[in-house]
């Protein structure tokens, strides 16, 4: 059997040694819950705890909401960027061919809407972060 490589370690250290540990159901569930909160596998969580290495802090509910909002913004801004690239390509091609520039108004309006929605979302997120740091 080939030794496993743990994906989260930067040095790609081979994890070739095993350690068996007996736990009660309650202890197992507690470790499982703590590992889940810190977004680590149970093995990585136990390794870090046993060697007193730093554990990531659990995400607060607000942090999770902020992260989800940022992921949504990232997706929408990429879509808006793709739309703008398509519009620019058509415009540049038309200019090179000496043709009138024709823009897909629907695509342009959708891009503008995405940008406005993300601006509002960014302002809301910034306000919420400011409020949470004051409390």
Task: For the structure shown, list the relevant keywords.
mainly alpha; two-stranded antiparallel ribbon; 2 domains; 2 strands; 135 residues
Largest sheet: 2 strands, antiparallel
Helix content: 55-70%
Number of helices, counting only DSSP H or I runs of 4 residues or more? 4
Please state the average pLDDT score: 78
Radius of gyration from CA coordinates? 25 Å
Q: Element order, helices and strands?
A: EEHHHH
Please indicate the percent range of residues in DSSP E strands (runs of 2 or more). Answer: under 5%
- What is the global morphology? elongated
Domain count, please report it: 2
Given helix and strand content, the structural type is: mainly alpha
The largest sheet has its strands arranged as 1-2
Low-confidence stretches: 1-9
The count of strands amounts to 2
The first-to-last residue Cα distance is: 53 Å
Description:
The protein has helices at about 25-35, 40-50, 60-95, 105-135; strands at about 5, 15. The radius of gyration is 25 Å and the shape is elongated. Mean pLDDT is about 80; it is low at about 1-10. Helix 1 packs across helix 2 (about 40-50). The protein starts with a strand and ends with a helix. Helix content is about 65%, strand content about 5%. The longest helix has about 35 residues, at about 60-95. It has a two-stranded antiparallel ribbon. By secondary structure, the chain is mostly helical. The chain folds into two domains: about 20-60, no CATH class; about 60-135. The chain is built from four helices and two strands, in the order ββαααα.
